[in-house]
Design brief:
Layout (H helix, E strand, L loop, with lengths): L2 H19 L1 H9 L3 H9 L8 H13 L3 E6 L7 H17 L7 E5 L10 H18 L2 E4 L4 H15 L5 E6 L5 H8 L6 E4 L15 H17 L3 E4 L3 H9 L8 E6 L4 H9 L4 E7 L4 H10 L3 H9 L13
Parallel strand pairs: 1-2, 1-8, 2-3, 3-4, 4-5, 5-6, 6-7, 7-8
Helix pairs in contact: 1-12, 3-13, 5-6
Length: 324
């Protein structure tokens, strides 16, 4: 890729992330009888469905093939208590649906969907209710990453919950400057830590851009967590990172799993699973897929070509890497 192509890709990535955060565009798409089905057709590659009943059969199918799953009714930034309670109740039903899958299933959620944007205490009450219920069924709850301005509160709520429950984990973003400090603070808790590079657009004051420095930082974070003996999810599609971690012997450690997003590099995850490594699929569902979908396009802008082809009904089946 030459310099001009690289600059254009960065511009496209920035534009797609801006679209992802634009509430006016989001509402227009979600409320449009013509646009919604067209764009959802493209988003469907990355989404298990709009409802729990659509997502659960896909989860069961993946489990039957030897994968673990992490289900998430996606959405965030609820500002009304009623909406937060409705979201909490959906997650309660999801927890109960995962009964019997044990360690093969976790449930992921954004704290801003269950109350954090209204009141931290509301979010904690909802999280605690979910953790109590999840503990009855052997289900782990993974707290997802959000924008950097929420990170302090997310970490504090996690520490509070992790002091009382062992079935709660947290997602840390390698690109944030604060992450090594956060890891040091929570390293002693027994819950799983999921490391991602970070999809949110952050200023240079808050985050490290995609670079070799970020790759090295990601490797350091994983190395520190593996050495602690506590559970860790390596949530990346980066073959260079995975290759280096395999070379160092980390992927085969009993506290390590590799996690990838549904519909992205299924071929690579299948190869790792077939080689005996623990493999997990992050499986989102729900009607609030706008932010998630445009972040997937922003991470790899060539996905936009396929999305356009799908909207135009030029692609009728997933490509090979969408199969597990």
């Amino acid at each position: 890729m030459n310099e001009t192509e690289q600059q254009l890709r960065l511009i496209a990535t920035s534009a797609l992330k801006s679209i992802a955060r634009n509430e006016q565009i989001k509402q227009h798409v979600l409320e449009s009888e013509s646009l919604y089905p067209l764009i959802f057709r493209a988003a469907r590659r990355f989404i298990a469905g709009e409802t729990r009943d659509q997502a659960l059969p896909e989860a069961i199918k993946l489990i039957s093939k030897g994968y673990s799953v992490s289900l998430d009714c996606i959405g965030e930034n609820k500002t009304l208590e009623k909406e937060c309670t409705e979201a909490k109740n959906e997650f309660l039903q999801l927890v109960r649906s995962l009964r019997g899958t044990g360690h093969l299933s976790t449930m992921s959620l954004d704290l801003s969907k269950i109350g954090m944007m209204v009141d931290g205490e509301l979010a904690y009450r909802h999280l605690e209710e979910l953790l109590r219920e999840a503990s009855l069924y052997g289900v782990t709850i993974m707290i997802s990453a959000e924008e950097s301005f929420k990170t302090e509160q997310i970490v504090e709520l996690y520490k509070r919950a992790a002091g009382n429950y062992v079935n709660v984990g947290i997602t840390l973003q390698a690109h944030l400057h604060r992450t090594e400090r956060d890891l040091a603070e929570i390293q002693h808790y027994p819950g799983r830590i999921r490391f991602v590079k970070g999809a949110y657009q952050e200023s240079e004051d808050n985050g490290e851009p995609r670079s070799e420095r970020l790759t090295e930082k990601y490797l350091r974070l994983v190395e520190a967590r593996v050495a602690s003996g506590h559970p860790v999810s390596i949530a990346t599609h980066d073959e260079a990172i995975l290759g280096e971690l395999r070379r160092r012997g980390y992927l085969g450690q009993p506290n390590v799993e590799v996690e990838m997003l549904y519909g992205i590099r299924a071929d690579l995850l299948k190869t790792l699973k077939d080689e005996g490594y623990r493999a997990r699929v992050y499986l989102p569902y729900g009607k609030e897929w706008h932010l998630y979908f445009f972040h997937r396009l922003a991470e790899y802008p060539p996905n936009l070509y396929r999305a356009i082809a799908t909207i135009a009904d030029r692609v009728n089946t997933p490509d090979e890497e969408a199969y597990y």
